[in-house]
Amino acid sequence: MTGTAPLLEVRNLRKVYRRGGLFGGGSGGGPAALDDVSLTLRPEDGKVLSIVGESGSGKTTLARIVLRLVTADSGTVSVAGEPIMAQGGRTIDNRALRKLVQPIFQNPFEAFSLQLPVEEYLFRTAINLGDAAMRRDPRPAIDEALAAVGLSYSRVAGKGIRAFSGGELQRLSVARALIARPRLIVADEPVSMVDASLRMTIVNLFKELSQKLGVAFVYITHDLSTAYYLSDVMAIMRQGALVEFGRPEAILQSPSNDYTRALLDAIPTLDRRWSI
Fold it and tell me: Where would I find the ABC transporter domain in this sequence (predicted)?
């Protein structure tokens, strides 16, 4: 695909979770988790798209569809020009998808097993998703990924998750994602379960990686302040609909939707709301 293809293109996504009982559910549907959502992150827009909304806004459903963990009822998704979700059309296989798009989930303690040393996950990712050279010798790629997140192999070797803080485990999740050399990382509420003193460390890491390595991020959050700090482009979602989309400074200077104004008013401040 050409280098000018959008980093992420979402078109007319709709998803309704069906209501049902014990034996598979009835035909009735609840409110749409996603209701005709479309958005695009182009290379010229920047590398970080933040999707902001409260619980139930549809932002996590959107993230899971991009990761192909959930199937949309209708609509299409492509990453760097490659079809991820298409109704009746060709899509890339799962291995190609995992090389292209990598996840970072909310709880870093659930990303690794108590039974295996953390380094095992790094080696498995290199062997399963790397090229022939990486499969023959995974260590250089692992060392490079760990260095990118401020860790070293000596810190990781032979240790299980109990040896790491939540912030370190989240950085290890990022390192694991980087080994695949993806075009896009989808981070779903990645700092909500990290100690408050470490949240900006993770957010700054995303900013640095997007600038230095050129990897794009979809940052899913309910926190408008970190989204504003990190984003090149911001989407505001409410009840399955996209209510604002554009540059963060433009949205926050002149919000067009009452919901965005309410989110702004809810941010605690000492003297003023924003310095833009």
Answer: 8-264
Domains of the chain in sequence order? 32-266 (3.40.50.300)
pTM of the predicted model as reported, rounded to 2 decimal places: 0.90
d(CA 249, CA 155): 40
E strand or H helix at 15? strand 8-18
Tens-digit pLDDT profile for the chain (276 aa)? 445 899 999 999 999 998 765 454 444 567 899 999 999 999 999 999 999 999 999 999 999 999 999 999 999 999 999 999 998 789 999 999 999 999 999 998 888 988 899 999 999 999 999 999 999 999 999 999 999 999 999 999 999 999 999 899 999 999 999 999 999 999 999 998 888 778 899 999 999 999 999 999 999 999 998 999 999 999 999 999 999 999 999 998 888 888 888 888 776 654 444 444
Q: For residues 101 and 273, give the distance between their C-alpha atoms in angstroms, rounded to a whole number.
A: 35
Could you tell me the sign of the dihedral formed by the alpha carbons of 106, 111, 115, 120, in that order?
Answer: negative
Cα–Cα distance list, 232 to 4, 77, 158, 235 (Å) = 17, 20, 38, 10
- CA distances 230 to 52, 91, 252, Å, are 12, 31, 14
Length in residues, the chain: 276
Q: How many CA atoms lie within 13 A of 166 on its CB side?
A: 14
Residue from 261, 245, 241 nearest 253 by CA:
261
